[in-house]
Amino acid sequence: MMQNVHLAPETDEDDLYSGYNDYNPTYDTEELENDTAFQQAVRTSHGRRPPDGVTRPMTAVRAAGFTKGALRGSAFDPLGQSWGPAPPLEARNEDSPEEKIRQLEKKVNELVEESCIANSCGDLKLALEKAKDAGRKERVLVRQREQVTRPENINLDLTYSVLFNLASQYSANEMYAEALNTYQVIVKNKMFSNAGRLKVNMGNIYLKQRNYSKAIKFYRMALDQIPSVHKEMRIKIMQNIGVTFIKTGQYSDAISSFEHIMSMAPNLKAGFNLILSYFAIGDREKMKKSFQKLIAVPLEIDEDDKYISPSDDPHTNLVIEAIKNDHLRQMERERKAMAEKYIMTAAKLIAPVIEISFAVGYDWCVEVVKASQYVELANDLEINKAITYLRQKDFNQAVETLKMFEKKDSRVKSAAATNLSFLYYLENEFAQASSYADLAVNSDRYNPSALTNKGNTVFANGDYEKAAEFYKEALRNDCSCTEALYNIGLTYKKLNRLDEALDCFLKLHAILRNSAQVLYQIANVYELMEDPSQAMEWLMQLISVVPTDSRALSKLGGLYDSEGDKSQAFQYYYESYRYFPSNIEVIEWLGAYYIDTQFCEKAIQYFERASLIQPTQVKWQLMVASCFRRSGNYQKALDTYKDIHRKFPENVECLRFLVRLCTDIGLKEVQEYATKLKRLEKMKEIREQHIKSGRDSSGCPRGRRDGSAGSDSGQNCSTGSKGERLSAQLRALPGTDEPYESSSNKEPDAFYVDPLGPQIERPKTAAKKRMEEDDFADEELGDDLLPE
To answer: Basic and acidic residues bias: where (predicted)?
Structure first.
């Protein structure tokens, strides 16, 4: 309904009419609602609107919230809040084919992502399982799509990603045949755009399989399908082709590829491989030119001056501090380190061949490097020149080359002095080594190698506490200095601080998992701590790393022997003997083991080998003869004793065996041997008298009846062994060819001691029983012939 208004002409205040005047210039608005004609006109006017209740199209007025309800007294509600809450959303029908397809597609994408994540975490087996599961579900998805929609609506991108991921996981798990088949499925499908690029991956697989001809074929097919606008990708493929040619020995073709790369887009890898190719064909001039090309490759990194603040502005300093070690800066450092590595390796490779001598070649490389952006590498090349002198055993030239750096800057001086200290230490010139170690430390206090060398010189002088301090300082400067960590462990062992030594070696083991030296030191520390079980466990780990180490095997055998496990001890001692059959301790243990188990005939071979290793030691030959006798071969035993007597005519034990054996067997030589034994017995008495008088005057204990020096307390007047002293004293006495007539009437002492010890009771033959009834070979082993 329209609002009522009063219309009046402009007039003066005096001309206004009163509201109570009967004059009405227009309409009587109070009766408009009851005026039928007016209401009909209102309803049918203005666009001929239809009567109330008839629907009409929404207009801007209605959309803004102006409705008839508002005109009838309702509040203004442009947002329609007075209409109440919106009706609930229509429930999704999960059983519909479209919804099932969406859920299955989502599951396939999740499996592909999980496969990639597992691969990045190193779990290749799980990554392959996820990739296979994604492939199975993707095939189900394709079949369902074909039933619901047209074939054009199939998600090709999802199919491509599933197949590509599956091929990648096959390749990562070294299942190359399956990977190639999967790549073939992708490449042969014309619906996949740019799938031909995957032939590069197929070429890589053939390269891993060493099928170089097929690798080159697929690389070239991929190169043909990549447009020239993708310059970087084409360069990488050509680099792969060049590397494959090197592996096949086709150096000329490889040179063509790398020369093209260096002319189009030079890079470090291509330049280094070009030098390798020319080195293989022996072209000196081309090697020089290629080295110059390698040096000229731009690094495209910022200079170090960029990270130095030019002012004291705190904001600028904060920004520089933030970017000084960010990821970009780290990448620049890695690129520079890689370039220096390639250049150093190339220089060491070509220097010995590009000139008459390697020294001249190194000098040429140094001059080229000095004129390039790698000026700092020139000094490193000079140090490598000195190291090359060392490899050629030319120590004087090495020392002279290194001494040239004494007037250089501190970093180079420290490196040269460190090498000089190392050289003098190897030559046991500890004073010179210490001097150059001091020079290295003073030039660069943070050089861990210099500090380690200084600690070594102090260690050699026996000052273990001070050596440990130098090693600790080296570790503070570089916690990855394994040399210092190993040496400080040895120092703690010397100081008997076994717990700290064990801690050092265990830390080192965490860094060097398969270091045989570290494993042995851990086992040795546990042995010193009297923990044989742990020592044996670590020695087992050591043997798994170096299974042919005879020392470790014998050590493990000794531990089992100390624990009473003879069978395990025999196994490891025998393995040690098999790998190194010249270890006297192992040979002696094996011989004693067979004697203890009453297999004397098997012990003979070990004692014979011992006699070959130590031919001047009579005890091994006496043991061989005793083994023959115990095994029942008396004739062989007699021949062996005679042979021993020819080699050692003054050996009393051998003569006693001969006298008794000849007597028991009934040979005529018994009188000859008895005369010799009687003469030696007389010499023995004279010797004992001399020893007794000499000891009485010097305060040494009296000698025993058998003439061996020393006493039970271990006090000896001579540093030689008992057997050696006995032989020396016998040789010092005057010899005679005539039988010696004793002043006494006693018979010669034919009593002897079995070198193998008392014989254990076992079934006997009649001859053996008769011999044993005569007290044959039933005495304990003398000290001089006991196994050590």
So the answer is: 761-772
pLDDT at 143: 86
> Three-class SS of residue 409?
coil
Q: Which residue has the tokens 């005047």?
A: 21
DSSP 123: -
Quote the tokens at residue 548: 């042919």
Answer for the pair 757, 781: CB distance below 8 angstroms, yes or no: yes
For 498-529, the pLDDT digits (tens) are 999 999 999 999 999 899 999 999 999 999 99
Residue 574, classified by CB atoms within 10 Å of its CB into exposed (0-12), middle (13-18) or buried (19+), is middle
The overall pTM is greater than 0.90: no
Cα-based distances in Å from 133 to 113, 116, 146, 164, 456: 12, 13, 20, 14, 59
Q: How far apart are alpha carbons 178 and 171 in whole angstroms?
A: 8
d(CA 333, CA 324): 11
Residue type, 11: T
Residue 730's pLDDT is 32
pLDDT, mean of residues 470-484: 92
> Shortest CA distance to 757 belongs to which of 572, 600, 566?
600
Q: Which one, of 206, 199, 204, 242, lies nearest residue 224 by Cα?
A: 199
Nearest alpha carbon to residue 179 among 195, 155, 163, 200: 163
* Interatomic CA distance for residues 684 and 210, integer angstroms: 79
- 458 closest CA partner among 483, 475, 438: 438
As given in the structure block, the two tokens for residue 546 are 């170096």
Residue 490's SS3 state is helix
What is the C-alpha separation between 764 and 761, in angstroms, rounded? Answer: 8
Q: Where are the alpha helices (DSSP H) in 631-721?
A: 634-647, 652-665, 670-698
The label of the residue with tokens 């670590």 reads 538
Distance CA 708, CA 694 (A): 14
CB 257 within 8 A of CB 235: no
The CA-atom distances, in angstroms, between 45 and each of 6, 42, 50, 62, 585 are 22, 5, 9, 18, 129
| Summary mean pLDDT of the chain | 78
Quote the Cα angle for 391-393-398, to 5°.
80
CA distances in angstroms from 534 to 133, 256, 345, 543, 571, listed in the order given: 46, 60, 44, 14, 19
List the structure tokens of 26: 């227009």
Residues 110-145: pLDDT tens digits? 999 999 999 999 999 999 999 999 999 999 888 888
**Sign of the Cα pseudo-torsion (117, 118, 122, 124, in order):** negative
Burial (CB < 10 A; 0-12, 13-18, 19+), residue 698, is: exposed
What the block records as the tokens of 155 is 């998600």
From 480, 499, 250, 51, select the one nearest 258 (Cα to Cα): 250
Buried-state track 295-333, b at ≥16 Cβ within 10 A, e below 16: bebeeebeeeeeeeeeeeeeeeeeeeeeeeeeeeeeebe
Task: Tell me the CATH architecture of domain 266-297+331-404.
Answer: Alpha Horseshoe (1.25)
Structure tokens at 644: 């021993």
How large is the greatest C-alpha to C-alpha distance in the chain, in angstroms? Answer: 191
Cα 286 to Cα 327: distance, rounded to the nearest angstrom? 38
Residues in Cβ contact with 270 at an 8 Å cutoff, skipping those fewer than 6 apart? 239, 242, 258, 261, 262
Residue keyed to tokens 């190359």 = 176
Is residue 192 classed as helix, strand or coil in its secondary structure? coil
For residue 17, the 8-state DSSP code is P
CB of 240 within 8 A of CB of 209? no
CA within 13 Å, CB half, 701: 14
For 483-536, give the DSSP string.
HHHHHHHHHHHHTT-HHHHHHHHHHHHHHSTT-HHHHHHHHHHHHHTT-HHHHH
Percent of the chain with pLDDT over 90: 40
